[in-house]
Amino acid sequence: MAKTLRALAWAMGVACVAIGLMHVLFGTASIPGELTAGATVDSRERFYNAIFAGYGLAWCWAAHQRPIPARVVRWLAAIFLLGGIGRLLSMAVHGRPHWFQLPLTALELVLPPIYWWLTRARRTSHTEVLGT
Q1: What domain count does the chain have?
Q2: How far, in Å, CA of 76 to CA of 112, rounded?
Q3: How many angstroms separate the Cα of 103 from the Cα of each of 61, 98, 99, 109?
Q4: What pTM did the predictor assign?
Q5: 3-state class of 123 per DSSP?
Q6: Average pLDDT score, the chain
Q7: Residue 128 belongs to what H/E stretch?
Q8: Distance (Å, rounded) from C-alpha 5 to C-alpha 70?
Q9: I need a surface site. Which of 9, 26, 73, 94 has the fewest CB within 10 A?
Q10: With 90 as the cut, is the pLDDT of residue 126 above it?
């Protein structure tokens, strides 16, 4: 379980850093169907994705720790879940987004419980041990 958790945490971190940096570099041109957004939306896109890249670095940091800090992984997973809930709220208010957003929403809703399960699966007695 610890190896699976470590691999998933690394994958999450690397993916978030790559996605965040791509959006910082390309702005709204990196959003399917949003090529004509104005300067305000482009500025916001680049700003928030710098933070998203930092979020990815937090995942990489957690994956690098020995043992993996379960509490940090749970918090990072909760933030990811909140993003998925935000997408659901957007769909309820504005309708169906570009098709590419739908699998992203599914990942944001499905992955957090997997991370929570993986962090709990390796508890031994009263101490969390998540691999060396």
Answers
A1: 1
A2: 9
A3: 26, 10, 8, 10
A4: 0.86
A5: strand
A6: 91
A7: strand 127-128
A8: 10
A9: 94
A10: no
